[in-house]
Amino acid sequence: MAPSVSKLDRENIVAGLTRLVGPEKVVTDEEQLREASVDRFKKFTSVHGIYDGPFPCAIVKAKSTADVADVLRFANENLINVVARTGRTGTEGGLETAVQDTIVLDGSGIDEIVKIDAENMQVTVGCGVPLQKLEDVLREQGLTTGHSPQSKPLAQYGGLVSTRSIGQLSTLYGAIEDMVVGLEAVFPDGTVSRIKNVPRRAAGPDIRHIVIGNEGALCYITEVTVKVFPYRPENNEYHGFLVDDMATGVAIIREVVTGGYRPSVVRVYSPEDARQHFSHFYDGRCVVVFVAEGPKGLVKATSEEIRRVAGRHGHTAVDPELISTWFANLNWGQDKIDAEKETMLRENELGYTTEVSVDWSHTVELYDKVVGRIRDEYPHADDLIMLGAHSSHSYQTGTNLYFVYDYKINCEPREEIAKYHIPLNAIIVEEALKVGGSMVHHHGVGKYRTPWTKQEHGSAYHMLAKLKAAFDPNGIMNKGTIFPIED
C-alpha cells in the first residue's frame, strides 16, 4: 500500500535490530514474513498461499518492555513502520503490513502472569499472556476475568486490549474497557507510561482510553491489570426461546436488559443465522438465548424475570440443555481454524462477519435495511449461501448486530475480497452509520473500515487526529490502521 520512507534499506534495518535485541529475537525467515503480512481478513487468499505484500523486513520477538522501547525508539528515529501483534487473532486487517519493510513487533514472549491479587480482585499480566491460560489459572482459585471472546483459546492480552475486545458474557461483566484497571504502554519515542491501578479516579480525563483500542496506532501495550470476579459455574441457568421474528426477539432482550437485569449471555438470532447454530431445533424461527450467572439469589431473580418477559410474547421454550451444549462449543481454537481452512479449499466457500452497534429504536430497521439492500442491490447476491445476523451484546441504550454472510466463491482466490467481502462489509457499515450507529462494535477498525473513520467520529475526529499527531508525529505506528492513509 505504501513505500518505506526510511533512509535505511531492508538489510540495514535488520542489522540495526539485531544489534539492539540480539539475533535470537529477530526473525527473517521468508515464509514467516509472508504470513506476518496479513491477518484473518485475508484468510482465503492466505490459505491458497497468496501473499501480495508489502512484506515486513523482520519479526522482532520482544521479551520485555525494554525490548519494545528499544525497537520503537529505533523505528521512530529511522522512520520505519511498526505493526504490534500478540495472539494474531485479528480479523480486520489491523495486523497487515501496509508499508514495505515494516517491523512486526511480537509481544507474545512477554507472557508472565505478574500478580494475582485476590483481595483486591485484580490480576496483572504481560501482553503475551493467553486469555485461556490465565482463565485456567484463575479458575483453580475460584476466580474468572469474565472475559470470553470466541478467540479465547488463542487470544492474548495485548491484542484484546488494543482492539477493545468484548466477550460472550459482556452484558454481565462488561467489555475489556470495563475490565481494565491499569496498564503499561510504550510510545514511539520509547517513553514507557504506567497508568496505576485504582478503583476509580476523577483526576482529569480517563487516560486509559488513550491506550485501550488504539490498535497499535498510538503505542504498544506491554502490561495490563484487569478485574477478576468469583467463578460460580454451578449456579448457571440457561434459557432458550423460539420466536417468530427479530422484532419480537429484540423486544424481549431489550425489556430484560433495560429493566436492570444482567444475564451474562443475551442473544437473538435471525432464522438464517440460527440455522448455523441451532439447526436441530430452530424450526425456521428466530432463537433467543439467555444465560443467568452469578450468586444463586441473583441467578434466581434473573431467571424469573427472563421467563416473565418471554411470557409476555409469543414463544416456544427450548430445552435448557440444548442451550448449555451449544454454549460449551462456541469458542474457536486452532482446531476450528484448521477445519475452516480445509472447508475453504474443499468447498470453495467461506463466511465472514461485520459487527456494528445501534440504539434500540433502530435495531430492527438496521437489520431489515442491510438484508434488503444486499438481496436487492448486491450484484453477486446469488452467490450467498447464508445471510443473517444476531444481537450478542446489549446495553441500557442499545445493542449490537453481528451480521454473518457466507458465500460460494465464483472467482479466482485473489479476487475474492474485492468481489465479496469488501462490498458486503461496506453495505453494513454504511447502513449502520445512516441510522446513527457505530461502524464497528468490537473487532476494531483495522485497515478496512478506515474509509469511514471520519464519518464515524464527525466533528470529534479532530480529537482523534490530535492524539495521532501528538503521540506518533512521525507516523510510524501501524500506518493505515484507524487513521486513513491520506493521498
CA gyration radius, whole angstroms: 22 Å
Unreliable stretches: none
**Number of helical elements:** 18
The class by helix and strand makeup works out as alpha+beta
Lateral arrangement of strands in the main beta sheet: 15-12-14-13-17-18-16
Helix content class: 25-40%
- Average pLDDT confidence is 96
Estimate the global geometry from the Cα principal axes. globular
Give a quick precis of the structure.
The protein is of the alpha+beta class and 487 residues long. It has 18 helices and 18 strands.
Describe this structure in words.
The chain is of the alpha+beta class. It contains 18 helices and 18 strands. It has helices spanning about 10-20, 30-35, 45, 65-80, 130-140, 155-160, 170-175, 175-180, 210, 245-260, 270-280, 295-310, 320-330, 335-345, 365-375, 415-435, 455, 460-470; strands at about 25, 60, 80-85, 105, 115, 120-125, 145, 180-185, 190-195, 220-225, 230, 235-245, 265-270, 285-290, 315-320, 350-360, 385-390, 400-410. The strands form 4 sheets. Strands 15-12-14-13-17-18-16 form a 7-stranded antiparallel β-sheet, with helices on both faces. A hairpin with a 4-residue loop joins β5 and β6. α1 (about 10-20) packs antiparallel against α4 (about 65-80) and α15 (about 365-375) runs antiparallel to α16. The termini are close together. About 50% of the residues are buried.
